[in-house]
Sequence to fold (483 residues):
Amino acid sequence: MLLLACMLACAFAGWAQDAKPAPELIVAAAADLSAALKEISDGYEKKTGVKLKLSFGASGALTQQIQNGAPFDLFFSADMDYPRHLVASGAADGATLYQYAVGKLVLWVPADSPLDLEHQGMRALLDPSVKKIAIANPQHAPYGRAAVATMKHAGVYEQVSDRLVLGENVSQAAQFVESGNAQAGFVALAHAVAPGMQGKGKYWEVPAGSYPQLAQGVVVLSHSQHKKEAAELIQYIKSKEVVDLLKNYGFRVAPN
Amino acid sequence: MAIDWQAFWLTLQLAVLVSAVLLVLGLPIAYWIAYSRWRWKFLVEAIVALPIVLPPTVLGFYVLVALGPRSPLGRWWISLTGHTLAFTFGGLVIGSILYSLPFAVQPFAASFAGVDRKLIAASATLGASPLRTFFRVIAPLSIPGLITGTALSFAHTMGEFGVVLMVGGNIPGITRTISIDMFDRVQASDYASANATALLLLVFSFAVLAVVYGVNRKAWVIGPIKY
Fold:
């Protein structure tokens, strides 16, 4: 009995210790950041003790969740429009809006693909071996809109539109190709160069002028209870350490 | 504000096809479950019930990877049909059959097991074959269970979401079901269309279930049921 009481007391002591305010930020982030932001989060926690809880999805889908009261502190979008939209509707703090990177779109095929992307470029999509082309859903994913724009720019959209399969976000589009179910796909350069994808495929960088620039913004959300910590995280995102990391993942970071 | 009727009809076709296949496929399985005395029968029952417990994402994962072009089974399927299981209507049909199997088989089996054994024995002593006994004695007495099972597998397929989201690829007219369309509308903050679609599905689902339960209670006489 005494032992049991002691165990209970110890358990409560441990629980009480855990309950001490360990700062924690809940972060909504575009799917193209899935690998990079995990790395940034690890580094940030080591440095400051602030833990980041990451939630990835299509930027449009996350925006919709935020508008309906999802308890996020910050939002890393894959474009600037969704954060601006949130600022306009009062759901985000416009003063904190910061363009942290410019994303790049690539055409990605599995390693065993017969396609020669370097020479064929967008024409590779017309190859008969390409039965399905994976893109992110253009309705709510900026990378999906970029993919449609670049196909239209190259004049191949009409010919391949019945071969498109839509991923919920750009990560699912990448998964469709990586699993071999689609033969080609438009993914983020950040996916193509992520450690988990090394050796699994080859990619071709889509010419930057052929789709609207994927300038990506981060913003602190209005109902965050941790605005100070959130602003500090944005400061950290501007540090050379993070800028270098983002560049390693294929993002372009405009000098401030 | 618009309802995607193409997605609605596609989903209806899928649900009718799947519940029809499950009616044919489910009868022998349910018969075996109801009457077999094999000591390991519970294992088969557990396998049939698996989709109730298994997250749809697990099934979706297997369709994409274990039955994808990187696996021997997937390559065999491609050599047979010329395409992957993912992103096709046929793929959705197969996935839905697996996923709705218990919703058909369990009510079937329960109603078969509820048929008075004396009637089955009487039919046999009168010289009827097991098949004749099934169609003349067991099946007519199990009609409520057959209706319930078919309606449940139909309803379950109408409302299927997770598997389709994972393996469908959202192709209009082929794999964009009404639940996926609904999801897209909400994600794109198109609440007017989402509202219209939601209301349509609410009314439709209620109507289907009301008819099924009404028929089951014999609120209307639908045919010469003799006892």
